[in-house]
Amino acid sequence: MQFFSLLQALLIAGALSGLIGLLAEAQDCGCSSDLCCSQWGYCGSGNDFCGKGCKQGPCFGNNDGGDRVQDYGDGGGDDGEGGGDGGDGGGDGGGDGSGDGGGDGSGDGGGDGGDDGDGGEGGGDGGDGSGDGGGDGGDDGDGGDGGGDGSGDGGDGGDDGDGGDGNGDGNGDGGDDGDGGDGSGDGGDGGDGGGDGGDGGGDGGVGGGHGGGGGGHGGGGGGTVGDIVTPAFFDGIASKAGVGCAGKGFYTRNAFLSAAGSFPDFGTTGNNDVKKREIAAFFAQVTHETGHFCYIEEIAKRKYCQASHKYPCNPDKNYFGRGPLQLTWNYNYIPASQAIGFDGLNSPETVANDNVISFKAALWFWDVNGVHNAITSGQGFGATTRIINSHECDGKHPNQMNARVGYYKDYCKQLGVSPGDYLTCYLGR
């Protein structure tokens, strides 16, 4: 009996020792990011783990304050004395137990949203605690708005979130694809991935998408083709055409933008630098081909008919160069007309008479002959020259080739982008 009593005592002691070890281990938590560490130090999900007393992870519900990361600050104090700083939201955004919204704080703004949550809204009017606005949004969340009168900056948007609006010095910055919010002061910055810069009372936000319009300097940025090809940019080219030029007044920005709308990949592929380089390349080639939009038709008006069963010629028509890229040859006019809607066989002159068709013909050539792919895939400006006029790449026409490069570098500078590599087309480049 004594032997069994001793054995039982040893077993019980071992079990207690193991339990104590487990408890000690549990107190350290170390939970995976999708689990909560409960107030007792265990990993799990649901109210028992993520509710009251939750220490870390996607906590929610009635957190009991303290310095825990997930806790939200309570409301503001009296007479504009702000409350504490908002804490961070949970996995799906934690408010005061809510799903997506961050809790409201009247101190330095609402808490930060979680992975999919929105940052909380900033608190009351103009008190000491309403300095900074809403919290930062999570990966897909929106930054919270700044508080009432006199509040400061809105929170920053997450990777895909929008920056919150602020009433002080502007708003938060948009995330990678988010929009900068609007501020009463300086506009927030747009996100890297194409968000819009916020509008501000001061300087406009510099956006990855549309530049924010400010009370001071307008923000620059990428975005749509129309945002990049501003009236000042287009007119800066066209204004250099002489008074007697046939293209004076024919080539317009509105006609270009109308035509570009039929080619959705043009000027919209890749990041903002790629978009701007393609547009700079297009206008550099057009500038060289037309003499700053001076010429509509080629000076030497030859027949340019190549016998073809697929693309026959009308003996009464000539297929010489017309339009921004001087569309030439029957085998270009006819498929272009089929794609963009005119009679290229019998009325090739339409390219010289209709300014929208004229730009469409140039953009059609740019697309189907691989110029778009060349400039957007990193092959460089030299590759576009090789496609458009390859004889300049033989080393015997350096002035013409370098003139194209000069226009391209100038337009890149105007658009705020580096010209990249491979600018010439000698020896395969």
UniProtKB/TrEMBL annotation:
Catalysed reactions listed for this entry: Random endo-hydrolysis of N-acetyl-beta-D-glucosaminide (1->4)-beta-linkages in chitin and chitodextrins
Gene Ontology terms, MF aspect: chitin binding; endochitinase activity
Domain of life, per lineage: Eukaryota
Compositional bias of kind Gly residues: 83-112, 120-136, 144-155, 164-173, 181-219
EC code: 3.2.1.14
Family the entry assigns: Belongs to the glycosyl hydrolase 19 family. Chitinase class I subfamily.
CDD domains: chitinase_GH19, ChtBD1
Region (Disordered): 70-219
Cleaved signal peptide residues: 1-17
Chitin-binding type-1 domain sequence ranges: 26-61
Keywords: Carbohydrate metabolism, Chitin degradation, Chitin-binding, Disulfide bond, Glycosidase, Hydrolase, Plant defense, Polysaccharide degradation, Signal
Statement: the UniProt record of this protein carries the keyword Hydrolase: yes
InterPro entries, A to Z: Chitin-bd_1, Chitin-binding_1_CS, Endochitinase-like_sf, Glyco_hydro_19_cat, Lysozyme-like_dom_sf
The protein's name: chitinase
Disulphides: C31-C43, C36-C50
Keyword Signal: yes
